Amino acid sequence: MSIIYIINSWTLIKLIAKMSVKIRLSRAGAKKKPYYKIVVADSRSPRDGRFIEKIGSYSPLLANDNQKRVVVDVEKAKYWLSVGAKPTERVEKFFVQLDMSNKKLKSDYDICVGVITAVNGVKGYVKVRSFTDKPQDITTFCKVFDENEKEYNLSVITLKKDYIIVGIKGINSRNDAEKLRNTKLFIKRSELPQAGNEEFYHADLIGSEAKLKNGTKFGVGISLKSMILIPRKLYTTRLLSRTSIIGKALESGIWDLKVHNIRDYANDKHQTVDDTSYGGGSGMVMRPDILGDAIDGCFDKTKPIIYLSPKGKLFNQSVAKSLVESKDGINVICGRYEGIDERVFKEYNITSISMGDFVVSCGDVVLFPLIDCCVRMLPEVLAEDAKKEESFSVESRYKHLLEYPHYTKPPEWKGYRVPEVLTSAKKIKELTANKQIPEFRPGDTVKVYVKIVEGSAERIQAYEGVCINRKFRGIGSTFTLRKISHGEGVERKFNLYSPRLDKIEVVRKGKVRRAKLYYMRELSGKAARIEERIKISGSAPVTDASVAEFKKAKGDAPAAESKKAKAKAAKTEKE
């Protein structure tokens, strides 16, 4: 005999209301092959793999444009949202991407207005970082509650510059207040005052579609968070003023900058954030507990965390491009003192980036070039033509090479004239007709002698490297040489008919596939060395005749015709 239990929908909703239901990710993949289930679960129960229902999946290894990267059963998701289930921040972003942005279905009716950052004193007072225009306004709302919808009655004790000290009804001891550290405080959207004309609350813009002026969709805006130890006034300099390029972009809403002071998370009256180093040595080290609280309170840990330090990876245009491709934004910690505790790197998987081999008092100074370099790569910040003319632009025709010298009007200034080669058509014809240029191609090792003028003196500088590219014909002909200097690949572009070139010599002939030549741009040290298939010893210049004699002496067979040449010959014969 079978027994069937029937439960009506009203009872089910009532049972669900008694739980704290979350829609979150549940790890299901193997090691180094992450895969997540999107599940509905009771947040009060331990994360033991149990859940109420699976409503989708997330595969981070798949490309962003792959439809199988995020799969959600929309009907089930809408049902659980309608009965009060709250998605985590990551899951809510998935819902926005899937156009499940109906305000009735989203949890953004709960607006975060502040966060409890630390305990103050022994009477149970806490420090609150308020997100309202005036910090004390957070206590004027009728109902302030946490993520579990527990309500709090707040009263202002002391108003500080960047935070307020608040008393909470029912919290009378430091131990009780310590349990509330990092608690986010929310209010209902309906409690906010009516926004003015063309004014919006941040929460109202969550999930809004961003478009270019021509109507092209390009996703959501980028948020850049920076954690520093200096006052916010420094960031009102000309870099972010309305007259600068990135300042105009900031004002237009193309990007955003949020600055946080780590001292807000200190737990003593002196706001101490550093201490002496174990093992001795001069200088102070950032404490892991203070910095950890700051990271937990400010950063979205789904975004990459960057630490500016001289010992990190050298910053260049390629690194900037990879940061810009982090479409949800990045978090930046500016180095200071002797550095930060090594345990913080392991806990939060922090990547170190160096702006160069030099020392400054603090990392806040070198944050400006990082911001400027990244922001100017965003859509609509610069004109497309301007991007293509930049030396290190990815779209540039110069392909990460330094540009040639530039001249403009007047033709003569303080005794200096524009080179005749740029102004005389007759001189251009003479150069292309009379200059002796040896035959060489990509893969050959070439030595160039360049005329260097220093004041009234002139000298010859030699530059030897592997030719990795030849472009154009006639007076516009150029070639690029690459060599390894101190373990790093260095490239230099020359105009074949430039009057600055005194002589060109072919040192060695080599056979290297062009694809390999470009692949080695990403390498350094021994890995960037090119192994030519043919090597001829001797310092004398090598000609095509000497190469043929070398092949003959070795007994090498003549090079076979390429497949393309054979196919062409067969087609001609058939015709």
From TrEMBL:
Occurrences of domain RimM N-terminal (ranges): 112-190
GO term, biological process aspect, one: rRNA processing
Span of domain tRNA methyltransferase TRMD/TRM10-type: 241-434
InterPro entries: Alpha/beta_knot_MTases, Ribosomal_bL19, Ribosomal_bL19_CS, Ribosomal_bL19_sf, Ribosomal_bS16, Ribosomal_bS16_CS, Ribosomal_bS16_dom_sf, RimM
One GO molecular-function entry: tRNA (guanine(37)-N1)-methyltransferase activity
Alphabetic keyword roster: Methyltransferase, Ribonucleoprotein, Ribosomal protein, Transferase
PANTHER family, sorted: TRNA (GUANINE-N(1)-)-METHYLTRANSFERASE
Name of protein: 50S ribosomal protein L19, chloroplastic
